[in-house]
Design brief:
- The protein is built from twelve helices and twelve strands.
- The strands form three sheets. A seven-stranded mixed β-sheet has the order 1-9-8-7-6-2-3.
- β4 and β5 form a beta hairpin.
- The chain starts with 11 loop residues before the first helix and ends with a helix.
- The structure holds pyridoxal-5'-phosphate.
- The site of pyridoxal-5'-phosphate has 13 residues, from α3.
Length: 345
């Protein structure tokens, strides 16, 4: 119940398209079809009412490479600001690009994790260049509301930062009042300084058939990003292109049915875990407080009881664990049985 993919088969319409592609015996280098760009534009508009230009899209084999490329555009020694806890590859970015990482702990308000703008402002220095977030937030499950995103936009603009917004979980919204807002759609002034990242991989459970897209509205920022990739990050392979295009064309019940099932799992988690579970609005990743257990090696302790979790320390917050509930209810029930046993001992 650790790595962030689900135990569900990918949708038949994607598998069928992949099978049809495999019937063609040549799996050589492939150009990206223009139809993929159109499919993604249609998808952004359909789900979020965001109309983007064809030229704003930069396609890559993954969101993590895109996060790293974004950091490569900065000069060595500059600072990047990252609210924590956060998806752990964010915490390797600075080192990979010879930058300085400034972690700013999020705070909890009525159990909800949120960005702490006072501390964020205090963390800004003359060398601050970029802020990186993910929304919906991995691992806390927060889906930032409009007020938070507006405050974030002001912070970024006032401090002349580039914003990188990883929105890979944008279709997995479980909270009844929660809604995903692509930040540059909500605050168009951000477009000139924002790199927004998307992929079909989470909601369609196809992360092994890698593909992702960076939306960069500003031509010079886009040119810097594209320049940084040269020779380092390849294009998308033929199967990734097929899977992504098929996913972005989807208007079926896949997303409503998946999220409905995940809501049931979440309800079960709430019943079983009570206050240990952080209020969750998006993702299939539960953020669970185990501070009272005072575990020395959290991962090993749960593994000893037959439960593979992600220890909070990976995300910069040792008091919690992250548990993936993108699985059949029976698996979740068994996982929670083992979780409780681990707490008893
Ligand atoms: C917030 C976030 N970004 C990126 C990724 C991974 O993206 P990719 O597999 O496209 O590199 C994940 C996977 O768990 C994630 O949760």
């Amino acid at each position: 119940m650790w790595v962030a993919d689900m135990d569900f088969a990918a949708p038949p319409f994607i598998l069928d398209a992949l099978k049809r592609r495999i019937d063609h015996p040549i799996l050589g280098y492939t150009d990206r079809p223009a139809s993929l760009n159109e499919a993604f534009q249609g998808w952004l508009d359909y789900h979020f009412g965001w109309e983007i230009h064809d030229s704003w899209q930069v396609w890559l084999p993954g969101v993590v490479p895109a996060l790293n490329l974004a950091c490569q555009i900065l000069e060595a020694g500059c600072e990047i600001i990252i609210p924590t806890p956060v998806y752990h590859p964010f915490l390797a970015l600075a080192k990979n690009a010879s930058l300085k990482e400034v972690r700013v702990p999020m705070r909890q308000v009525d159990g909800h994790w949120t960005m702490d703008f006072d501390t964020l402002q205090a963390s800004v220095t003359p060398r601050s260049r970029m802020m990186l977030i993910c929304n919906p937030q991995n691992p806390t499950g927060r889906c930032y509301n409009e007020a938070e995103l507006h405050e974030l936009a002001s912070f970024v603009i006032n401090n002349n930062l580039i914003l990188v917004s990883d929105e890979i979980h944008c279709n997995i919204i479980l909270g009844t009042n929660a809604q995903h807002h692509p930040i540059s759609a909500l605050v168009p002034e951000l477009l000139e300084r924002t790199i927004s990242l998307y992929s079909a991989s989470k909601v369609y459970n196809i992360p092994g058939v890698s593909s992702a897209v960076a939306v960069i509205g500003d031509a010079s920022l886009r040119a810097r990003f594209i320049n940084a990739r040269k020779g380092l990050v390849p294009g998308i392979g033929p199967l990734g292109l097929i899977a992504a295009e098929c996913a972005f064309h989807d208007r079926s019940n896949w997303i409503p049915e998946l999220t409905q099932y995940l809501r049931g799992n979440l309800e079960y988690l709430r019943e079983q875990l009570g206050n240990r579970l952080a209020p969750l609005e998006g993702t299939y990743l539960a953020w669970i407080n185990v501070a009272d257990q005072q575990l020395e090696n959290t991962e090993a302790h749960f593994a000893h009881h037959g439960l593979g979790i992600s220890p909070g320390v990976q995300f910069g917050e040792a008091s919690h664990i992250r548990l993936n509930f993108g699985c059949p209810r029976s698996t979740l029930e068994e996982g929670l049985r083992r979780f409780k046993l681990a707490l008893q001992e």
